[in-house]
Write a structure and sequence with these properties.
Blueprint lengths: L9 E2 L4 E5 L2 E5 L6 E2 L1 H22 L23
């Protein structure tokens, strides 16, 4: 096993990510944290799922189907957590 040289605490699990009332809620360590590769992938997957769910929650209020209320969100870049 190699020793990490990162000054950050490393986490084996991604923070909990959910959607609530059209917002993405992140619970746990996220800022200034290092994640193992599998935890990073899990974080990206859960963020994507929560974003989609938040969009579904807002769709009726934003006039779903007519293009109103659709906000553009920046694309996630590989390697950026």
């Amino acid at each position: 096993m190699t020793q990490s040289h990162s000054p950050l605490d490393a986490f084996d699990e991604a923070p909990r990510v959910t959607a609530c009332d059209g917002e993405v809620v992140i619970s746990g360590s996220l800022v200034n944290a290092a994640y193992t590769l599998s935890a990073g992938r899990a974080l990206l997957a859960s963020l994507s799922e929560a974003l989609e769910e938040a969009e579904r929650q807002l769709a009726p209020a934003n006039g779903a189907g007519n293009g109103l209320g659709k906000e553009k969100r920046p694309a996630l870049r590989p390697g950026v957590v």
